Amino acid sequence: MKKRLNIKNTLLTAAGIMLLSIALTGCSQNAAAIKETDKSTLTESASEQGDTHRVIHLEGGDTGYPNPFRHTSRGPGIAKMQLLYDSLLEKDEKGLIPWLAKSWETSGDGTVYTFHLQNNAKWHDGKPLTAEDAAFTFSYYKDHPPVSNDLLVDGEYIVTEAKALNDQTLQVTFSHFDLTFLEKAGSVRILPKHIWSGVQDPAAYDGDDAAVGSGPYRLESYNPEQGAYRYLAFNDYWGLKPAAEAIEWVPVSDRVLAFENREIDLINASADLLARYENGKAYTLKSSPSYHSYRLMINMETEPLLKDKNIRQAMAYGIDRQELVEKVARGAGSVSSMGYIPVYSQWYNPQIQQYNYDVNKAKELLGGHTYSFQLLTDNSQEGLKTAELIKLSLEKIGITVTIQSAESKTRDQALQTGDYQLLLVNSGGMGGDPDYIRTVYGSGSVTIKGWSDEAIEDLAARQSVQTDESLRKDLLGQLQEKIAEEVPMIMLYGTTDNYVYRSDDYNGWMFRYDHSKCDHNKLSYLIRE
Description:
The protein contains 16 helices and 21 strands. The chain is of the alpha+beta class. The two termini are about 30 Å apart.
């Protein structure tokens, strides 16, 4: 069976593909194909509408060197890297779409994928990109994991073999069937074998070719002290045409002033600023519920007292999360689900323990005991205000909090190393297939220090292979209930993302189906219909 898919309108969810694979017993699935004539027609018609001589200016900030081994682990660092490096699949407003892989087939048991690559893809140094590069990448990442590592699931590297059948055909074999493995493999950033095959320590490698990728833009300059980057359009790019001649991330002291002075082209505006732009003819407002949430990380390794579930539940009841929405997000947001999956997701279970603000319930759980903990936050205005309100709330139930603040990079490093008791962070990764819940609470996860739960790990594993949607939803519902009861970290609130830009200058900004930051999406910087 063969299906043709348009690069703009394709919806390919991992679950849907696997369900079809199971249904077609004894038959391989030809999941997607793009006609070269269709792609070129799309590119030509779109380029007539776009000014490719423009320079897009964005707010700067150091997010590390933009290759898969040296960028920071947060969204801005990942996004800059992904503009330079292509993957087998990409994502648009509806789901997964073909990219470096123009088509693929799946074995009947869903463990082997055969990808057919674009014929004319090149590296930024002019050398051709082949299936040998892709096969090398899957092998190299096993011994040299990138910062963002989708191939490690439940502590296991999921690819058992990757080999090039010819220059344009890649075969990837997985350790077992899983609903999400296509998306995970499809998101891997492909490396040039001729550069990385001789590199033993990729995190330390700083050669002139350390950022050579195959993406639509190439790195021209990077200044870590200023947090400044300059990318140039890659004129030999195989796919959709770059929408700009260059992208520059520039240092600014006041983002709103910089936007209004046309020093940058886009801002994520706070709620109190929206009236300033909503009625202005020069501005366009693009809003989306956030797939990010502020959360209070609880380190049970450094502070064993926090292993007591009653203390964690008391803190959850004792923090006025609605107050955080009103006073920090200025009403443009919502209280997060303690079961992790957002309330606006089709997979959300409304029957979970809700933890509405209740001082008396919190005190009852503490049984008259008092405690003192240190809370680390970044030094942003939003982070500091959130931390201060948490401190005031917890004081009312008998928990004293000492706030420590640091640069966001220092806070993020502490999150990785475990050098904290309580830590406040605003993190994403809560869009798309709900298997993201397994990366946080499943077996092998190191997100929550000093905590694990076998029942939760079992449910997380079982939902990932359940092809019946209603049965999977039931498993995910049970999983959310147990997570909310255990409350190993306290989900606080998410804000609404409100992006403002001048459409007369550039109108290509888009939201991916699983991500609410339009400046983080590769397709925002390419010419489309």
